[in-house]
Structure formats: structure tokens, C-alpha cells
Amino acid sequence: MSDGRPATSLILDLAAAQAALRATELEGTRAALRADGREIEDDMVLAWPEFTHAATTAQLQRETDGLLHTIGLTGPGLPQVLRMLEDGRLDEVARPLFPDAAPEELPELFPTPLEVLMNLAAVRAGQATFRHSWSDPAELVASDGSPLDLTKVAERAITDPRGATAALAELGIGIWRA
Known about the structure:
Layout: H1 14-35, H2 48-71, H3 77-86, H4 90-94, H5 106-109, H6 111-124, E1 128-131, E2 139-142, H7 151-159, H8 161-170
Helix pairs in contact: 1-2, 2-6, 6-7, 7-8
């Protein structure tokens, strides 16, 4: 049963609480955009869909940077990884990520981190964005709003890196973007 008082009556200093929330929003927006290589105006606060995309892209970039660091690569890593796969060097590229895996397990394990690189390339190419949701994790979607799942392309890259590169190009995704 409601007592009729507005919820704001539970906050002792509403103006101070609003100012603190605004400062937190601004700092979160700045951090997300900075990580995405963009800057904002002093008082700009992103709408939730854009904030979700910027923050999730920043997280994807950090994950990609970690993968490439572990593998021992710098710069755009996807072309380097695909070249290594083309040269038959799956063990060399995957072993740092899965040091305890048997060699025959690597073709099954490596598509997952490879898909991370491909997802970042899709976002950086402007062919994908992260869809905001209040009830589910952010979802990677294509420009038309349909879910973008690059799992099969990543799996194909293990045995046919050139074919996977062509499949990405058909989607408008340049491999040099991640």
C-alpha cells in the first residue's frame, strides 16, 4: 500500500543527488568515448543506446588488445592472425591463449577469440553496432538491425582464411580494422 508521498521525499538533498548522478553520467560518457577514440563536449551525455554502443565497443577493444598482447602481436591483429592461419601456423597463434590444450583441440578453441577480432572489425567498419537492452546483454547487430553472428566465419578461417576474409569483405568488413 502506498503512503502517497513522492519517491523524491526519500532523498534528503535531491539537488545534490541529481548533480552527483549527472557527474557520474558525464564521466562514464567521457570514458566510453575516449576508449572508442572519440571526444565529447563538456556537458554532453549520451543517450542510452549510444552509451551502450560506446561502452561495449570500448570493452571489446580492451578484450582484443588483451588477446593480441597474449599472442604477441601489435597493431591491427586480424590481418596478421589470418595470415598466420593461411601459413598453417594455428599452433603458434593459438597456443599462447590455450597453453594446456592438446594440438587437436586448437581448431575447436581458437574460433572464439578470432570471432572477437572479427566483431571489433565489424564495429570499426561501421557494419555493426551494439543494441541496448534493459533486460539482456548488449547484442551485436548489423546495420539493418538483424543479429550479427560471425561464428561460422571464424570457424571457416581455421581451414580457409582467404574464404573467411572474402566472407567478411562481402559484409563490408575490412580485416585491417581490428
